[in-house]
Design goal:
Length: 190
């Protein structure tokens, strides 16, 4: 193979490698975008106190943008108590979980709210008791401008990578297989 053919071949190998790298970066960014929109924010509070009547524990959910929350509640009390988790935005309740009644409560699950919450309010009711517990809420917090930029980057990198892979592969095969055969056919006719 001539030096020009070798240079041409290395050029197309470079195009194929750049296309593969572009597709790989696009795949990595798409996986990151999947992680980015997952419920990765966690707000948690452990507490212990004595009270009579009604008492609340407030859990702030800064930056919450999604309407689905995942909650976990564990309570241990000296006397039976009622527990409710209220998800609020401003003065409006956007979701409610009745955690039940008893001296030991364990409640976990997910809830689709009517709007993105600002806080979770654990409301406890008991005649007179000592209570220990933990409440945690996992929620979505997404900057939609960043998500749009990620989606556009994934699209552009993937398309550019696939085009470079297709073009480079075709040109590589053409110049290494078809072109030498063609020049042999032309040379044998003379």
């Amino acid at each position: 193979m001539s030096s020009a053919g070798s240079t041409r071949k290395s050029k197309y190998v470079l195009i194929v490698a750049a296309g593969a790298a572009s597709v790989a970066i696009g795949l990595f960014l798409s996986l990151y975008a999947s992680y980015y929109v997952s419920p990765r924010q966690l707000s948690e509070e452990s507490f212990g106190f004595s009270f009579e009547g009604e008492r609340s524990v407030t859990l702030r959910l800064p930056g919450a943008t999604g309407e689905r929350v995942y909650y976990f509640l564990y309570l241990s009390s000296t006397e039976p108590l009622n527990a409710t988790i209220k998800f609020t935005r401003g003065n409006n309740t956007v979701g409610l979980v009745n955690a039940g009644a008893g001296t030991r409560l364990l409640k976990e699950g997910s809830l689709l709210l009517s709007g993105a919450p600002e806080r979770a309010l654990l409301v406890l009711q008991c005649a007179s008791c000592e209570v220990n517990g933990t409440i945690s809420v996992r929620y979505f917090s997404v900057d939609y401008g960043k998500l749009l930029a990620l989606d556009i980057a994934v699209l552009m990198l993937s398309l550019a990578g696939l085009i470079a892979l297709a073009y480079g592969s075709y040109a590589l095969v053409y110049y290494t297989k078809a072109l030498p055969r063609r020049s042999l056919e032309v040379g044998s006719k003379h």
